[in-house]
Specification:
It contains 25 helices and 29 strands. The chain is an alpha+beta fold. Strand 15 and strand 16 form a beta hairpin.
Amino acid sequence: MTERHATVTGGIAAPPLTGIGGAGRTALALLLALAAAAVAVFGLRQIGGDAPRGLLWAGAALAALGLASLLGLAVGVLRLGRDRGDRAFFDALAAALGHPLVVTDAQGRVVYANAAYVALSARGGRLVGMDVLFAPYAEFSAPVYQLAQAVAEGRGEFRELRVAPGAPAPCASADRPVWVKLSATPVAGGGTALRLWQLQDISEDRARQEQAFSRLQFIITYLDNAPAGFFSTLADGQVDYINATLAQWLGIDLPQAQNSGMKLGGLVGEQAARLISGVAPRPGAAVTESFGLDLRNRLTGKLIPVQLIHHVEFDAGGQPSPSRSIMVPRHLAGASAAGGEISAPRLSRFINNAPIGIAEIDRDGIVRMANGAFLELSPRARRGAALSAAIVPAERGLLLQALSAALCGEASLHQIEANVEGASPRNVLFTFTRLAPEDATAVVFAVDKTENKSLEVQLAQSQKLMAVGQLASGIAHDFNNVLTPIIGFADLLLAKMRPTDPAFADVMNIKQNANRAANLVRQLLAFSRKQTLQPKVHALTEALSDLGNLLGRVLGEKVSLKINHDRELGLVMVDIHQFEQVIINLAVNARDAMPNGGALTVRTYNVGLEESRSIMPSLMPPGDYVACEVRDTGSGIPPEIRDKIWEPFFSTKDVGKGTGLGLSTVYGIVKQTGGFIFCDSEVGKGSTFRIYLPRYYPKASDEAPAGEKPVEAPKRDYTGRERILLVEDEDAVRAFALRALASRGYTVVEADSGESAIEKIDMDEKGFDLIISDVVMPEMDGPTLLRELRKRGIETKFVFVSGYPGEQFEQDLEGHAGYSFMPKPFSLKQLVEKVKEAMEG
């Protein structure tokens, strides 16, 4: 070897004397000691004689030098002896480890190597670092480079490598593979960066690991193919293990089931999962239970009756450890019935699959047995827990009384309705009974009536709303017949008067109040969803911008208004006047909720198909919508009255300050438009109303959206010379319409019923250009009159007028054309415009 290793002294590498043997080094040390002593003696003599002053100083220096040299030699001799002792100790320690190790400096020079490494490195021809020794071999080159990089950065790492039989590497074996652990560790060496490299043969450890793994694999294979199903679940219900037999029974993919985080409900079904996990915590105890279950194969749908044995242990805090469950096919568990009797496992199967809750309760009120339907009622309804814990506190006393009466045998059945606690309140009908006089337990049957109660409330509410709606619709019809002549005759008077006339303001006041009454009637019809809508394609951007000034006046100075629109907002098909009424009603309510001021924000945005799925899937079908959101910073709506805000005549305002029709009108208009409205509110923070209108996608033949401002049309001439047949059973309405049309130049023939109209037509020789007819009349109504005339071949155009909405009679006229509709009440201007439109149409 061309290089020799150095010793380590105090953590610092100190090179030894080279080329001189042990005896030579001793003789040389003695000679140096004698020379130093001679120099010291000569110096002392010069000091003690009569020499000149300068020679005295030289003698003193020589004496000091000699004494220092002698002292240094003595220390060196002592230190050399100590280092030789340390070296022997470290050599013995490294030899005891048994595996090769070497210490190198930052430049890769060998600082120390034990005998095992020297013997290993001798095969390479010279003593080098382990990184240099193994770098030429393919299986070592990459790991050695990675370890060298790690140790240079101050990190200790290792690699486990397999060396094939007969490989050229120094540690290879000729007849067997060798597993080695190669490690590099940084060592602090008294200020010098040192690296400790070690090479360990771990073939025996690997062999033991592979043997243990093979044994484990055998056990798993045995368990996987056992003639019984086995699974284990964690405390959170996640399936931790499932054997291949159970996976085959259930028709599921085994790797997917073990790697997908499957829950217990996904493995055996939600009802069976509730049954299995429905045991109350028992700190420090273990619980083993048996159930009869029906599993189902996912691929074939075949039912698999099994008997389940479930075991779970609880720690001192009541937390469950991973459970272990085994399933055996019921025909192998001795569960067949004999002699026509129902076996216990079969009876358990019936109970566990019953659609109602069934449980066994002892005298202390503790649930001893319960099926899945019973456990589903409340998270507090658990085996081993008190049944009363699942009941709201106010009703626990009544439930315990019914249980006590059943155990005393006072009657066969004892029923009580109670509300159980849980994520959502449930109303449950409990029926207690004792199967035999000697039984110390009672059986309870529990029927969840929550949905029935909800349906009963909804039915009562629907019937109430329907009754109020019919009443409102009838009142609206009668009011419209009264308001039509009031508004009409007021228009006739105003047409003959000047603003300076003394009575002009009075007549105008009459008309304005009549219009207010008409608006109230429209609200009644909107609530009952029986008003006549005139939907058109609109862009809400323009519509709400035009409404901004009016909203500002409605809100007042204390409430700030902000209107935000989404870019490229979609179009909607709405009656824009009714939609404006919706926004105004919401704004008025928001203003009243902010008496000390606040902010109202109106925002519009598009809602896509995917986003709509998460809004309210039980009420609103998925689709593309345009949303209008009205948000205020007011007092909010308490949760206890939030469900009542849509009811007609419900109001939280003082008597005389609200009709209770504002939000019910909003709801009616939105629903009649085909949209949806939802309310979110938090007391003290404000309310948000979100309206979702179906998005309209225009066709090529569609006109420009109504939100775009049309070119102003020239003034039209509303006079005429045509002949009109007026059919109306209300004298006042007929009188106003007759005067209004006659004042515009039309020739009007009046009739007070459908039969009278037919007589007029039969007697008339000139014919009529237009027939204006009321819809609801005694004996022969308007639609019947139209059908009768069409049978006779008379194709005269019709204009129907009614206090009821037009949609109510349009279904009766399906297949007929040549008619239009005008709702009551109508003004003079609306009447002549409709007549001209019908004539020209």
